[in-house]
């Protein structure tokens, strides 16, 4: 049980680290160009598209994890899902559980897969890069 708790806490720390890095990054070149156009009174194609879609669009973040039993899911929901939703209310966070490592590898190799991967350690990163 202690090993599983450590794994869940490690996942939480990893998720928080990645999310904080994303939130703290500076503006992208496209955002800078958009800001300059806004200052000049011009509207961009992206702004027109966003206006057409409406304001209700939420960003989606998918986090992978391996299949867990009901007790592990309850702990994850209490200590990871809940705090993440509170910290990022405008982001639709999905925790996707995988039965095995191979199904995760296939998704990532196909160009899809989750935004944040739950891996066993730094040596596994090369497989998914």
Description:
- The protein contains 6 helices and 2 strands.
- Helices cover 58% and strands 12% of the residues.
- It is of the alpha+beta class and 129 residues long.
- The chain has helices at 2-24, 29-40, 45-53, 70-87, 101-109, 125-128; strands at residues 59-66, 91-98.
- It has a two-stranded parallel ribbon with strand order 1-2.
Break the fold down into its secondary structure elements and pairings.
Elements: H1 2-24, H2 29-40, H3 45-53, E1 59-66, H4 70-87, E2 91-98, H5 101-109, H6 125-128
Parallel strand pairs: 1-2
Helix pairs in contact: 1-4
Describe the structure concisely for a colleague.
This protein has helices at 2-24, 29-40, 45-53, 70-87, 101-109, 125-128, and strands at 59-66, 91-98.
Q: For the largest sheet, list the strands in their spatial order.
A: 1-2
Q: What is the tally of beta strands?
A: 2
Helix share of residues? 55-70%
Could you tell me the strand content as a percent range?
A: 5-15%
Instruction: Supply the helix-strand structural class.
Output: alpha+beta
Number of helices: 6
> For the report, how would you describe the main beta sheet?
2 strands, parallel
Average pLDDT: 73
**Regions with little confidence, pLDDT below 50 for 5+ residues:** 28-35, 42-54
Based on the model shown, name its key terms.
two-stranded parallel ribbon, single chain, 129 residues, alpha+beta
């Amino acid at each position: 049980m202690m090993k599983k708790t450590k794994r869940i806490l490690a996942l939480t720390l990893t998720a928080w680290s990645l999310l904080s890095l994303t939130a703290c990054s500076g503006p992208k070149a496209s955002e800078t160009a958009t800001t300059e156009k806004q200052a000049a009174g011009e509207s961009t194609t992206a702004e027109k598209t966003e206006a057409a879609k409406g304001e209700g669009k939420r960003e989606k973040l998918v986090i992978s994890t391996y299949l867990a039993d009901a007790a592990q899911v309850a702990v994850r929901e209490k200590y990871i899902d809940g705090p993440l939703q509170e910290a990022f209310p405008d982001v639709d966070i999905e925790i996707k559980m995988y039965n095995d490592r191979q199904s995760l590898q296939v998704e990532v190799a196909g160009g899809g897969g989750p935004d944040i991967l739950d891996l066993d350690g730094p040596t596994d990163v090369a497989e998914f890069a």
